[in-house]
Amino acid sequence: MSTKIEDYIVNTISPKWTPLSEPGIDTAGLYVSTLRVDENGRPPSFLLKFEPGASYPYHNHPAGEELLVLEGSCIIAGATLEKGDYLYTPPNFKHSVRSETGCVLYFVVPEEVEIL
């Protein structure tokens, strides 16, 4: 483990976006910017960008999730979340996500999601 604080700083003003790629899932219009990687190489903290009309399929969060809308708006389980809205979903909460306008979301996801 590095003892230099600079090794743990991520610039979120100009994030490095890469297309989200998950086998067997249509992730067109979704981009991810990893903020932190855990000991297993999995990113529990990340930014997710939705282009207008993009969506993420119905899924379960075995350990819950936290998200904050940084830009734009999205629809989760029928609720519209806008810039500044925070959402905590408890363990085993199931939903899909879509954005008609495009958005950028900050996520904390302790465990991998399960696509349903």
Give a structural overview.
The protein is mostly beta strands. It has one domain: Sandwich (Jelly Rolls). The chain has strands at about 20, 30-35, 45-50, 55-60, 65-75, 80, 85-90, 95-100, 105-110, 115. Strands 1, 2, 3, 4, 5, 6, 7, 8, 9 and 10 form a ten-stranded antiparallel beta sheet that branches. A hairpin with an 8-residue loop joins β2 and β3. It is globular and about 45 Å long.
Descriptive key words:
globular; 10 strands; Jelly Rolls; RmlC_Cupin_sf; 116 residues; mainly beta
Give the topology, please:
Elements: E1 18-19, E2 30-36, E3 45-50, E4 55-61, E5 65-76, E6 79-82, E7 86-89, E8 93-98, E9 103-108, E10 114-115
Antiparallel strand pairs: 1-2, 2-3, 3-9, 4-8, 4-10, 5-6, 5-7, 5-8, 5-9
> How far is the first residue's CA from the last residue's CA?
36 Å
Give the helix level as a range of percent: under 10%
- Overall pLDDT: 95
The largest sheet is:
10 strands, antiparallel
In the CATH scheme, what's the topology name? Answer: Jelly Rolls
Count every beta strand, where a strand is a DSSP E run of 2 or more residues: 10
Strand proportion? over 45%
CATH architecture: Sandwich
What's the SSE pattern? EEEEEEEEEE
Q: Helical stretch count?
A: 0
The value of Rg in angstroms is: 14 Å
CATH homologous superfamily title:
Jelly Rolls
